[in-house]
Structure formats: C-alpha cells, structure tokens
Fold:
Amino acid sequence: MKAVSVQTSSKEYPVLIGEKIIHELPLFLHNEFPQLTKLMIITDENIGKLYLQDLLEVLSDFESSHIIVPNGENAKTFEVYHECLTFALKQQLDRKSLILAFGGGAVGDLSGFVAATYMRGIPFIQIPTTILAHDSAVGGKVAINHELGKNMVGAFYQPEAVFYDLEYLHTLPEREKRSGFAEVIKHALIHDLSFYEELKEKVKTIEDIQARLIQPFLARGIEIKANIVGEDEKETGKRAFLNFGHTLGHAVEAEMGYGGWSHGEAIIVGMRYAIQLSKKYNKFAFNDEEFTNWLITLGYETEIPAEIPAEKLLLRMKQDKKTIGSSITFVLLEAIGNPMMMKIDDEALMMELERFVKKG
Ligand SMILES: NC(=O)c1ccc[n+]([C@@H]2O[C@H](COP(=O)([O-])OP(=O)(O)OC[C@H]3O[C@@H](n4cnc5c(N)ncnc54)[C@H](O)[C@@H]3O)[C@@H](O)[C@H]2O)c1
Ligand SMILES: O=C(O)C(=O)C[C@@H](O)[C@H](O)[C@H](O)COP(=O)(O)O
Ligand SMILES: [Zn+2]
Structure:
C-alpha cells in the first residue's frame, strides 16, 4: 500500500493506494468518526452492478443507504444533484453522517458537491474506481455541469480521505483506461520530464495500461497534484497548471454534448493545441510529431471532428474559468515540467484552431 498525504489550508487527508485497501475503510471510519450516524453511498449503474454488494459487505457494521445515479456525465446534472439531496433528506442524514463517492470522476464530482452543500457541508470520502480518478478524487474540486459550460456549478471541498483500491481497475473498459491515462500524461508534462520519458518508454500500447503496471504512475500523478493543491488550494495561482489542455478540452466536451467524447479524449486534443501555442508563442522546443505518433499508437483521436465549427469552440473557450474579462488565458509550457500562463488573442487562437479541425 502507498499513502500520499494531501495538506491543504482547509484540510489534511490521506490518499491510500493499493489492492484491497477498501478493507481498511471500516477501521478508518471507527477511528476518525466515532459519532458517525449514517453512511450514504452514491454510485453509478456500472459500479452498482459490479461492486456495490462487496462494498456493502465491507461496511456491514454501519447503517448505510445507497443511491444509483446514471453512468458518466449524465450524473453531473442539476436533476441528479437534486435527486441526491432529496434522497439524503429522506434518509435523514444529519451533520454526523458521511457520504461515500463510489465510482469514477463523474460520481466523485457529483457526490462531493452534494456533500459540500447538504446542510452546508457534511463529510465525504472518495472511493475512486477509474484511472482518471487519480486526478479527480484528489484536490477537492467538486462540481456539476451546466449546458453553457463544464463544471460551472461547484465548490472547493476536500474529502476526508481517498481509498483508491486498484482492484476496481481490472474491469475498466479500454476507452476508460485511455481516458484516464490522458491525465497521467498531463501530470508528467506540467511537472516532470523524467516521468514523461518513463511513460513513453513503458506505455507503448493500450495493453500496457494495466492495473499493476500503472500503480506507480498513479501514485506519481497523485503526488504531483497533492503538491500543487497543497500550495494553492483555491486556484489563485499555480493550481491553474493542472488545467493544462482543459481550455479547449472542456470546450470540445461541451460542444460534443457531455459524454460524446470522454474527458481524457478531449484534453488530449486540448494538450496538443496548447503545445502548438507553446511552440509558437513561448519558444517551447518539443518533438510534436513523436508525441502525436505516440498518442495515435495508444488509440487517441488527435484532431477535432470536422462537424464542430472553430467559432463555436472559441466562444466556449471564452467561458473558461480562467478567462478574465474577454481574454482567454492559456496554460502553456516553456519546457516539459515548466508551465506558465499566457493571454492569447482571438485571432491567434482561431488560426491555430483551424489546424486542429479534421479535414473532411
Ligand atoms: N474534480 C477534479 O479535479 C477532476 C479532475 C479530472 C476530471 N474530473 C471529472 O471527472 C469526470 C471523468 O471521470 P472518469 O473518467 O472517471 O469518468 P466516469 O465517472 O464518467 O466513469 C467513466 C465510465 O466508466 C465506468 N466505470 C467506472 N469505474 C469502472 C470500473 N472500475 N469498471 C468498469 N467501469 C467503470 C463508469 O460507470 C462510466 O461509465 C469528468 O466529469 C471530469 O470533468 C474532475
Ligand atoms: O484539480 C484541478 O485544479 C484541475 O484542473 C484538474 C482537472 O484535471 C479537472 O478536469 C478539473 O475538474 C478541471 O477544473 P475546472 O476548474 O476547469 O472545471
Ligand atoms: Zn481534467
């Protein structure tokens, strides 16, 4: 088992990573929450079928209820958020109750937002089940989507702990492995050249993204994220680096209809775009061709579907949370491991966007 401590100004908590570590949860609850009244598990249809029964057995000492929400981005809606609050009220959760977010990033973001707002905040624990969730379960960004923008309604609200049991990863479909690995690549690009080189060396095909092999990469990604969030919990400065690739990525997700492209698929294209901007406006020396070929071998889309007009993406990017006034601010790289922020004007962005839209 590996443990990473996240130390933010609002809360310190452990991220426990390893196979079968879910069995440590009851003791943690007994020790840390001696007055615990009820548990409410929020999970989705897939995880509900695969693992809910096991989790209920692990938690048999506790009074618990569960709600099953739709899979994927369909969980991050106002309707589902409202249903969760209604369920919590009907179950009479109180301020000594605790929510368990059991699933991928969508369940984690939704459940965290429910926990942050129910009775003005009750504790929650993340039990991530995807590769991507090495990112989403850590750092306390919780949110639901609005049709006008991704994660537009949310909070910074840290979990009490993250129990990352890697056994769950064995059932992940290939597409979800790929999606999650995109955030691992992001962590390497913004923070650590040798980590990036190691990823290229060890992950040559999608089959290499397996639970056992990926464990140290997930732990490394979590350490990188924990360090950044520890310094800047509420994104007043360097936390924005974790948004590398997301300005265009979120625009693509929204424009494709949430869930049309997965989060990781969209930020791969977003990172390629930010890399091009970095080369052009920030003297970033980078072998883009080699990077793109690696992504293609791993099965990623590297271009934006032709049916999405560049103008619409530009408008979406203007609603990015890093935009101040009407200036779109990008996370660019000076070198691998050396990110910075830069405002880029619309004309330059449009010019570069045209290159990323798939030619019919
Ligand atoms: N809060 C943050 O800091 C942060 C960071 C990154 C991403 N996110 C958000 O996370 C979401 C994406 O997360 P995700 O990729 O984990 O997606 P997800 O939660 O939508 O899960 C993806 C799919 O995989 C299925 N699944 C999950 N675990 C499984 C398992 N072990 N076996 C089989 N199937 C499984 C789910 O049911 C779903 O259909 C996006 O909404 C994104 O915006 C948040
Ligand atoms: O934790 C962060 O900070 C991130 O930016 C991590 C991102 O991978 C994640 O997708 C996050 O939800 C994006 O945040 P947003 O503020 O752009 O919605
Ligand atoms: Zn992300």
